[in-house]
Amino acid sequence: MKLRLLGLVVAMVCLVSWQASAQTLSIGDNAPALEVSRWAKGDKVDKLEKDQTYVVEFWATWCGPCIKTIPYLTELQKKYKDKGIKFIGVSVWEQDPSKVDPFVKEMGAKMDYSVALDDVPKDGDANSGKMAKNWMAASGSDGIPTAFLIKNGKVAWIGHPTKLDTPLEKVVEPNFDLAKFISEAREESNREKAEAKAQQKQFEKLQARLEKLGENPTPKQLIEVIDKTIEESPELEKILGPQKYALMLQSGDKNASTYGMKLIEGIYKNSAEDLNQIAWMHLDPKGELAQDKRDTKLALKAALRANEVAKGDNGAILDTLALAYFKTGDLNKALETQEKAIKLTADGDEGADEMKERLKEYQKAVADKTKP
User: Residue 106 is part of which domain span?
Assistant: First the structure.
């Protein structure tokens, strides 16, 4: 899986953003109408019934994080289908709506829930759809994927789809208290917004410090600025850690390996994507990191843990693990793992062609090794 190392460290200030927008839809309000142009897959839902529980999730074909979330939503739909919860994926902000049907068809069983397209006025832009305006913009949600949990006609929860587990578990409890749930969800939302606002202020301070360094700061100077920010706000290490680690590697810092293991065994121990990113720093064939500064053994540890967290179901992470095996000399495991990765990756997915090329490379290496 390709890692996008930031060419300009100043771009780190964009990793967290919070905007105080005019909000007309909040947790506890009546859910807006379901206004879609057509259904691309699954059961059609004419309106949101008050005796039914829904997850209305917003996504787009061009949105990488949305695509990664789709199989997870499918698993949740399977888990809660018999418990009265209906999942609906609504495509929004599509520049080319004609891409939706082929995308949904290609996803196949990985996207096994109802899918609809936003109702965009004729000649209107992608942001002018009724769902985009009345749900996303109205709630102040400016990024996708975003999910809305609707219970008894009320907006009970708003957040990232990967955080749906706990809300869904509570909703299906026999003694579920909707009023209490909404109150707690509202408090959680307000707390997250306050934290995001505080983080934004800290990133603005970081930006000011970076600007003082001039146009060509050294890795050491950048690390010092990051360390100062982490010292003031320790929770930001989860965001800034990969950048610090990359800079340490680039500068040949003797403590880079120790810090890398700290990330793997501590901060990112349960984050498959972050672990995969650390591994890929050392493995990316097109990466910026010099070959003499790469640590393939550390990469293997990170990739193994990432695959463990992902439960072996993520093709991109298996692709990274296969390359780690290959680079550390375990050709048979590299080939076996790459075959699994390709089975979990659809043609046309990001990196699919590169995966197939690596498979050929591993097959040849194994064949050459077994020749008499």
Answer: 31-176
